[in-house]
Design goal:
- 2 copies of one chain form a homodimer.
- Chain A is α/β, with parallel strands linked by helices.
- Chain A has 12 helices and 7 strands.
- In chain A, helix 4 links the parallel strand 3 and strand 4.
- The two termini of chain A are 30 Å apart.
- In chain A, 53% of the residues are buried.
């Protein structure tokens, strides 16, 4: 871990609670952010995929971020998702995040056009960095080809690190493919590499990675933090297995609706079920199945 | 064609000229819009895929649209692309378009999340329409699964028409699949169906469709307009074949870079080559090949 990598540990891509009119319930969101930090998260990655980040407008995100800081959440522990399809929008949000002191930003490549070249992906990220033009900017590349389709090749990662060594400081690998994550860890030992799934947390730390940014951190932050804090302990594999149980229970369901269902059940607050289209809630049958298996950890 | 479908004929998804710093060259864009209308386009679909529409920020699009109207281009002939990933952004841009009198808007479904349900896609479009809440809004669905991945099934189209019969008035089918386009034309005879490729223009008109919104309309508007005006003529098939020649010449190249290359060569203005990342220009070898074959029509 280089000195430019401040973010590490267990980060939650924070679920976004919404009112019945699908506006963001900002007070509930801020309270949830604080709760996650109290319960074990070392940092937060709001506006990630699990946050329905790309279903939030740019003005909404800027406003939410400002309110979160105003409420006393330390900017240094935040890695907001900023990657949109249009470079001006991504640059505007990334600049705002850097200006207020966010520890980093999580940056998708532009994901509308398919079949683009490595050259095009490199230039898109470079153009954003140049436009932001702020030495405080810390970029974590967001590699999630199962959803964004467009991702970062090893060659593009290498080129970005060489071009912007103090700015492009890490990656979240949500490929779901351990071989890809391992390749990144092997190729870039000083990079701030986060596993996109907590199931790879121990393996990632053992290979020099810095932590996980995982949807499951919304519901089992303490279990994941315990694993992170004790990854050198003798029983570390057991701690990993303990975490894996919760993923196994949820794996048959669409992840965001399943996690919002768990939050609604846990809190007794049905507004946790609100999702922005195009996402849909679980069916009643799925809810019954899920809740029969789920045990709060 | 029902009375609510005003837009028909040959619409260009207008190429977006950019300065060397990748800002939009708005005066050149406005002049190009006017030229396309003078040269044969019956309407314009700015901010489409060919326009690098999703590489433009929302504020850029709103500003460009206002300047275009101010410059005297009739709003009634415009169908700007408005579909983004976040419902508030899509609703904001669609509302602005309706307010200033645009003939329609071209609306992608939210395209970040993959594997979403028909229910989710329906609710996304419905939510935008409800938020706009303006009877002047005319929505043309934008079905382009090769790029957006997410598209509109026949069932979703039918449900949207039934729910919003005076608002959801048409579709651009850019599936590239004649069978899909034919299915739409057969299922919804009174719908404003545009072929997403000019190669299907004659077939579309013969089955009751209303025209084409085609990238090629940027460079051969006169040829396509002649076909549209004479589709009932005896030589209509020859006119279609004449148009097809130009598509054949460009088919081996990435379409947006190829069309910008043709514009740069035609006008002698190299700034036409500017593209926003992640798109990249053709290689010099490709340029040589393309220009050896291309003849301005």
């Amino acid at each position: 871990m280089t000195t430019t990598n401040q973010l590490h540990g267990v980060l939650a891509p924070v679920l976004t609670p919404m009112n019945d009119d699908l506006s963001v319930d900002v007070p509930k969101w801020i309270a949830f952010c604080k709760q996650l930090l109290a319960d074990g998260c070392t940092g937060l990655a709001p506006f990630g995929t699990t946050s329905e980040g790309n279903s939030l407008g740019i003005d909404e995100r800027i406003d939410m971020l400002a309110q979160l800081i105003d409420a006393g959440v330390p900017a240094a522990c935040l890695m907001p998702g900023v990657g949109m399809c249009a470079i001006p929008d991504t640059a505007r949000l990334a600049h705002q995040a850097a200006r207020i002191g966010c520890g980093g930003v999580l940056m998708l490549p532009p994901f509308y056009y398919k079949g683009v070249s490595d050259e095009g992906t490199f230039r898109a990220i470079a153009e954003v960095i140049e436009r932001v033009g702020d030495s405080r900017l810390r970029v974590y590349l967001y590699h999630i080809p199962p959803i964004a389709v467009i991702g970062f090749s090893l060659a593009t990662i290498e080129r970005l690190i060489k071009a912007y060594p103090t700015t492009v400081v890490g990656i979240k690998d949500s490929s779901g493919d351990w071989n890809n994550l391992r390749s990144i860890l092997e190729a870039f030992p000083d990079f701030g590499t986060f596993a996109g799934s907590e199931k790879f947390l121990l393996s990632t730390l053992r290979m020099g990675g810095v932590g996980t940014i995982s949807a499951m951190a919304n519901v089992i932050p303490g279990i994941l933090r315990h694993l992170y804090d004790h990854w050198l302990a003798e029983n570390a594999d057991q701690l990993q297995e303990r975490a894996n149980v919760h993923r196994e229970i949820t794996r048959d369901y669409a992840p965001i609706p399943a996690l919002k269902q768990i939050m609604a059940t846990r809190t007794g607050d049905p507004t946790w079920l609100n999702l922005r289209p195009p996402l849909s809630n679980l069916t009643q049958g799925q809810v019954t199945q899920l809740l029969a298996k789920w045990v709060d950890g």
